[in-house]
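Regression report. Comparing outputs from two consecutive submissions.

Submission 1:
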Amino acid sequence: MNPPYWHAFILFSASAIGGVFFFLTRKHATREIKLVLSFSAAYLLGITLLHLFPELFASEIEHAGWWVLGGFLLQVILDFFSHGVEHGHAHTHHHEVGTRFLIPVMISLWIHAFIEGMPFGGTALVHAHEHGGHVHAGHDHRGSLLLGISFHKITESVVFAALLFQSTMKRSTAFLWLLLFALMAPLGAFTHYWAGETGMVNVGEFTVKVTGILIGILLHVSTIILFESDHSHKFNWMKFGSILLGIALAAMVSTM
């Protein structure tokens, strides 16, 4: 298996784009960003339910559901410390944003991003199945997953950059923290690849388990984004349209 250079580059670039966007515009809660957030959440939910979930249970890995539950509960804990940055906003007040406050936010985002990158360093989550007397190979969903995670990283890094630059830390320190955040998903991919290449883990089985954890994380993040109410508590046709578009795209990428 080849090293995940391409996946790592895309994951890093997505995080960098979000940080640069905020630095240039100083905007993190525009209508356009919210629509991209809704689209990415719907797309991630779609590929999770339509592709990743079926492949996970088709893999016949023992206790597959527990890995999903573990990822979901892990994200519940991480969300407590990150204050919702993964959801495209932060439940904070400006006077709270100091360096000491940001340390647990950063650590939780590191863990979140590291796990997001891990499946890209292993073998694809695929499984051959029989239908109508013919054997059909499973699909490599890393390409479609990479697209969804990249959209998610952009909105996530925009909010994180907003927290950093609104804090009391120096601008150079803020850029360093953004760089470390952008490196975490690629680090997760290369750590997984290294563990498989050195024989520390059975890379096929380990990839399935890691993907199960990621499924739980994505279920938590995507549903929170989609079902959090707007302040107006009114039906938003633009948001609903972006959700439908995300689900439609997820349904179309089954062959990627």
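Submission 2:
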Amino acid sequence: MIETLPNLVNKINIFRDISLSDEQQIEFATRAAQLRWKSQDITINPDDLLLAERNLDMGSDLWAVFNRVQEKLVNGGINYSKGRKTRKVRALKNFTADMNFNGELWQLAEGYIN
């Protein structure tokens, strides 16, 4: 872990230097939701995933967008639709599912590095 920390910090700094357009933010949020629910027929408003709850989470850089979307999809609490029913997203409580999702989300973010 200690050996990978400098690379992680470097990658976070790269994420902070990448500004995403509104369209890219919506695309990121949509793709992240698809990672969370795989092939299930879930509809979620990307704007709900992108809404900043704290001042520190504001911004259009990749790191800020990543954090906002990650928090909503891991901790839950926002609405989604499945068919005609509207429900609340539940938190990921399974350690393995949480780790897998976060790994896939990180790879998604890395895809936005030129």
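Expected: both submissions complete independently.
Actual: both completed, but the second showed a warning that disappeared on reload.
Relevant detail on submission 2: Strands lie at 79-82, 85-88.
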